[in-house]
Design goal:
- The protein has about 475 residues and is of the alpha/beta class.
- The protein is globular.
- The chain contains 21 helices and 8 strands.
- The protein has an 8-stranded mixed β-sheet with strand order 1-8-2-3-4-5-6-7.
- It starts with a helix and ends with a strand.
- It is about 50% helix and about 10% strand.
Length: about 475
């Protein structure tokens, strides 16, 4: 297999994802599995189809690589009759409707053939199976999100599955006209990754398919779904070295901080009071066990402009999702040095949205993880599932409102077959804050944790109880791009 193909197929479905489907093929003498819902059966079937699609893609790449290799050319000179028969059989398997159905890919020759197939509307077997897998995911999600099963929403999803972009545009217009932009976005948010993946698979653009295949395999896409532009381009849009300057709290922030304590609802309130115009907070705590620990509070994105003078902008949000070394992380590292946080100090990172992403990006940074002991990463509404902390002892706690579209941008939606690591704690719920962006606001998370999900509040507070004690320092910092 060529290196390119190996890279593309590296994120194959892990064994645990296929365990749901394997129960259907268990020997007759084993105990019957517990009865599953239709949604679970659909997800199990989608896992099988996704695995088959990825296998067909890999088979096409290996056949293409074999036909275009110099070894095959050498054998052609030695044994022309054999080479003709082998080439005929391979081409039949690659292009025949009973085979891979124009499944060439990988390498220069394979990619040129794949692009030609995309432009000429050829749909290979791998694409047909991938589309069916996405369609099953969408149907499974609709079981828990009834608004997706409404006639208008179903019209949109059916058009996307069928590759009918004109009808999809009409259906989108009808949905927005009926529900408004925010309610329409909230309605399709549980399947937004599947819809974008279908768009990439079924359009004529041959260079944006990577997004779809990575999404199918459960990875975090590193290209955009429309033009196929690589995430590495973001470094040129977000190149700031980062800067951190001490700041004084205004009257409102000072009032909020005066009542702060080691409580997840209190942390969310503090983050809300910091706003999203560049402020973060470093807290010093004299803990009950005699140790001095630090907590760093990181707010999320400002949606006013695509880019501004702080790391908390939309460009920074996309950069934080796809990369780990960002202007936000660089500014925070300078903050920690400027504040004189001693090496080896225990540090808890708490962040909302982009702030949660940045917290996880800092935890994945080997320099940060080797300088400080990051004990906890607590995130709210953050798409962090594709990232892993450098220190395996770091406790990751992810709080997710299922109506919030932002946490799904990591590729792990409601029907994704992927699971988080077993030592992570993910607490998810559906509440009354249905519409985005209300469902993403810090206030929506704190209100829920105060109310019907108070048991989650207690669970998180127990997990972070080592930070119980007296707050001896609350220092805001203003972060700038440069």
């Amino acid at each position: 297999m060529t290196p390119q193909v190996a890279e593309e197929t590296a994120q194959r479905l892990p064994a645990r994802q296929r365990s749901m489907a394997s129960a259907d093929t268990a020997p007759a003498d084993t105990a019957p599995p517990p009865e599953r819902t239709d949604a679970e059966l659909l997800i199990a079937a989608s896992i099988l189809l996704a695995d088959a699609a990825l296998t067909a893609k890999q088979a096409g790449a290996e056949l293409t690589g074999a036909l275009s290799s110099w070894r095959f050319g050498l054998e052609t000179l030695r044994r022309p009759a054999w080479a003709l028969g082998a080439a005929t059989a391979c081409l039949k398997a690659l292009t025949g409707p009973s085979g891979l159905g124009f499944g060439a890919n990988g390498g220069v020759v394979g990619e040129l053939a794949r692009m030609a197939g995309s432009v000429t509307y050829r749909r290979p077997a791998k694409v047909a199976m991938a589309v069916d897998a996405f369609a099953m995911r969408i149907r499974a999600i609709a079981a828990d999100h009834p608004n997706l099963d409404s006639p208008l929403a179903r019209r949109l999803t059916d058009a996307m599955v069928g590759g009918n972009r004109i009808e999809a545009l009409r259906a989108t217009y009808a949905l927005v006209e009926r529900l408004g932009v925010t309610r329409a976005l909230t309605t399709v948010s549980p399947v937004i990754m599947e819809l974008m993946a279908l768009l990439g698979l079924l359009d004529e653009n041959p260079v944006n398919d990577s997004f779809s295949w990575v999404t199918l395999a459960g990875g975090v896409p590193t290209t955009d779904p429309f033009l196929g532009l690589p995430s590495s381009l973001l470094r040129y849009l977000n190149p700031g070295p980062g800067r951190a300057e001490r700041a004084e709290p205004d009257a409102i922030l000072a009032k909020v901080l005066a009542t702060s304590r080691n409580d997840i609802v209190s942390y969310v309130g503090d983050i809300g009071a910091l706003g999203n115009h560049g402020l973060v907070l470093l807290r010093r705590i004299a803990c009950a066990d005699g140790a001095v620990r630090h907590a760093l509070l990181l707010p999320g994105t400002s949606f006013g402009l695509l880019s501004n003078s702080t790391p908390q902008d939309l460009v920074g949000a996309f950069d934080g999702l796809l990369r780990t070394d960002t202007t936000y992380t660089r500014a925070v590292k300078k903050l920690l040095r400027r504040a004189g946080v001693p090496a080896g100090s225990e540090l808890m990172l708490v962040g909302h949205s982009l702030g949660g992403l940045t917290a996880m990006n800092l935890a994945t940074d080997l320099d940060v993880a080797s300088t400080y002991r990051i004990t906890h990463v607590v995130t709210l509404g953050s798409p962090i599932d594709g990232k892993r902390p450098a220190d395996h002892t770091t406790r990751v706690i992810s709080l997710v409102n299922k109506h919030d579209v932002i946490p799904m941008l990591d590729g792990r939606g409601p029907a994704s077959p992927n699971d988080i690591p077993e030592n992570w704690v993910e607490l998810a719920w559906l509440d009354e804050s249905y519409d985005y962006p209300l469902s993403h606001a810090p206030q929506a998370y704190s209100d829920t944790l105060r109310g019907e999900m108070a048991h989650y509040r207690e669970q998180v507070n127990q997990l972070i109880s080592t930070y119980d004690g007296e707050i001896v320092g609350n220092q805001p910092y203003m972060l700038r791009d440069k």
